[in-house]
Amino acid sequence: MVAKHYRVVTYSRNVFIPVTNMCRNHCGYCGFRRSPDDPQAYIIHPDRVNEILQRGARSGCTEALFTFGERPDEYAKYSKRLKAIGYDHTLDYLLDLCRMAIKTGLLPHCNPGVLSYEELILLKPLNASMGLMLETTAHLQAHDDSPGKVPQKRIESIANAGKLKIPFTTGLLVGIGETRGDRVESLEIIADLHRQYGHIQEVIIQNFTPKPGTSMAGHEPPSFEEMLWTVEQAREILPDDVAVQVPPNLISPGVLIQHGASDLGGISPETIDHINPEHEWPDVEELEQKVGRDTVLRERLPIYPQYILDGWVSAELRPIINELTDDEGYRINI
To answer: Which end of the chain is more exposed for a tag (fewer CB within 10 A), N or C?
Structure first.
């Protein structure tokens, strides 16, 4: 009797913590960003962060995903709010939040936008992995008045993470005005960065979804066929050890898995997707029904198994990772 071969698709279990929604960029598709004068602008208080971390730990989460508006310190009104909770710089606050997560038993994964080499050095020991969406190498109207979305700045930041051996997540945002050729170019640049540094653990292929109140609210999202084509291109262009990720709350993953997607990203039992709050997370049991009978879901940490086995782990995080993983570097069965 011939043994049946199953396709393995991974995911992580996380809590999604939006540290601030104030941002220097003015992307035409973003419904998350707020200016400091907006009554909905905030910096999340450390007590609230601790509460979310505790809930995540009780729910069996392994990842604390910290997201930001980029470089909010450029706004005086933001800095005033930050000082009110005891910090002069956002980076200092983020470092303390990472330490809080580690104390709770969760592994930080920070996505604060473009960072310098020196900032990455400080964050590396306290992060299991980090991330920055490349989005596109094209210069688009959607990124007007968005200094952090200059492609070369983002490529430089991703390269610096590679120089420091930080396991890294990046990706494309599909449907914001780029062409198919732009997407191919973006994927080829990511592939080249990985061949040089070996640090790209996953590439997200994320579909644009229109947000009310933004300049692109009436812009059509990409078709499923366009997403399928992009996933196929990603799997063909990227090295085999780089996972292609699709967000299962934004697009049905079943067919995309058949065509090269192999990861579903972070799924939270406790927090919403604050970037796309109108799209609820599916639960794992629901996903198991959608991915196909020849596919097995397997839970991982925010750092992929190969980086654990290769020793890309700091002393600060090693005890947690050892406790959470099996001999293959996946999440131990709970």
So the answer is: N
E strand residue ranges, the chain: 7-20, 63-68, 107-111, 129-131, 168-174, 200-207, 243-245, 263-267, 295-299
Q: pTM, whole model, 2 decimals?
A: 0.95
Residue 332 within a domain: no
Identify whether 301 is part of a domain. Answer: yes
Please write the tens of the pLDDT for every residue from 124-183. 999 999 999 999 999 999 999 999 999 999 999 999 999 999 999 999 999 999 999 999
- pLDDT tens digits, one per residue of 65-81: 999 999 999 999 999 99
Q: Cβ(304)–Cβ(168) under 8 Å?
A: no
Q: What residues are paired with 106 via a beta bridge?
A: none
Alpha carbons 53 and 48: distance in angstroms, whole number:
9
Range of the structural domain that residue 91 is part of? 7-324
CA–CA distance, 165 with 167 (Å, rounded to integer)? 6
CA dihedral 86, 45, 19, 128 (to 10 degrees): 80
Q: Are 111 and 68 in contact (CB under 8 A)?
A: yes
Give 202's strand partners: 169, 243
